[in-house]
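Lecture notes, continued. The same structure-token format from the folding unit now serves as the input rather than the output. Read the line below as a description of shape only.
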């Protein structure tokens, strides 16, 4: 099926096949801008012109027990990442205030490790979320690893709206990325979060050596799980990590095709481009919105630097989009 017919099908049925998605992600360079224009129409219909601006705080850093190949915080990797225990409530609230001043409308508390360790950590996080309930126009999010249904229910009761838990990559590639926990553990956490009434944000990191077919495989897994938000991260290789060895960067047009294909597969999700966009998209960053994204991350990431939030806000305004 040709691109105009695929676009019409997506706009009408909100659904394309795996085979059709493969044809999109493998679009030739010469035809890529036609694909972006089509994805832009899908974004406009289902998400409008408003861009969601997220912000995160690295609330607990380093000494992670897991061996995810890309992670600078893993104890399996020798990196120069800063390590510290969970920040206190006042410190976390201060970061939330900074996020709002920069224009952020979604604030996420992110911790290193497989999951929350002990009742004291969970209490600090739930108390912080409870205090954030009075902040108008600030969605409360958390990324805390693999959690039990009971812990997720406590977070929901405290006022958490959205739980972030990336699948990171396709099931078929996952053993090459991580060996210390399973894909099914991640899926179980996502299902538990949904069962207690939380929205789920889940996506992946790309450029680890996965194939285009595996990138599509991840998208269909996320679609099946019914997540509300899908963040796309592009690998920023950190010296000392497994993923940095033999690193082959994705090309900007390749990344834009990935974004557009995800918009075709999941026309109604909040589709974001987060980590690695500055390094990998470079001067083509504005095109991530034309490719179908309606969400991005302001400021710094967990262990790498982003850019001045004012530059991102100006970029959005220059595209005649709103935030």
């Amino acid at each position: 099926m040709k691109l105009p017919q695929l676009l019409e099908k997506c706009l009408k049925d909100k659904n394309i096949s795996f085979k059709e998605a493969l044809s999109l992600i493998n679009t030739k360079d010469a035809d890529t801008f036609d694909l972006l224009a089509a994805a832009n129409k899908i974004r406009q219909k289902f998400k409008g012109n408003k861009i969601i601006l997220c912000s995160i705080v690295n609330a607990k850093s380093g000494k992670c027990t897991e061996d995810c190949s890309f992670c600078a915080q893993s104890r399996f990797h020798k990196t120069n990442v800063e390590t510290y225990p969970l920040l206190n409530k006042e410190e976390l609230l201060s970061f939330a205030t900074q996020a709002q001043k920069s224009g952020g409308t979604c604030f996420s508390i992110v911790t290193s490790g497989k999951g929350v360790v002990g009742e004291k950590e969970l209490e600090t996080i739930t108390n912080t979320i409870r205090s954030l309930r009075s902040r108008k126009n600030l969605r409360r999010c958390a990324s805390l690893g693999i959690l039990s249904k009971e812990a997720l229910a406590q977070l929901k009761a405290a006022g958490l709206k959205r739980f972030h838990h990336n699948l990171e990559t396709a099931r078929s590639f996952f053993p090459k990325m991580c060996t210390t926990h399973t894909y099914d553990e991640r899926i179980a956490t996502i299902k538990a979060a949904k069962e207690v009434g939380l929205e789920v944000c889940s996506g992946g990191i790309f450029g680890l050596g996965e194939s285009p077919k595996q990138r599509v495989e991840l998208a269909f897994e996320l679609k099946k799980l019914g997540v509300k938000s899908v963040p796309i991260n592009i690998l920023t290789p950190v010296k000392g990590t497994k993923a940095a060895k033999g690193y082959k960067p994705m090309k900007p047009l390749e990344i834009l095709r990935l974004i557009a294909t995800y918009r075709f597969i999941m026309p109604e999700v909040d589709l974001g481009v987060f980590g690695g966009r500055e390094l990998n998209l470079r001067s083509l960053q504005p095109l991530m919105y034309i490719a179908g994204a309606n969400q991005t991350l302001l400021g710094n990431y967990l262990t790498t630097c982003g850019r001045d939030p004012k530059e991102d806000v100006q970029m959005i305004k220059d595209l005649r989009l709103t935030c």
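Point for the exam: The mean pLDDT is 92.
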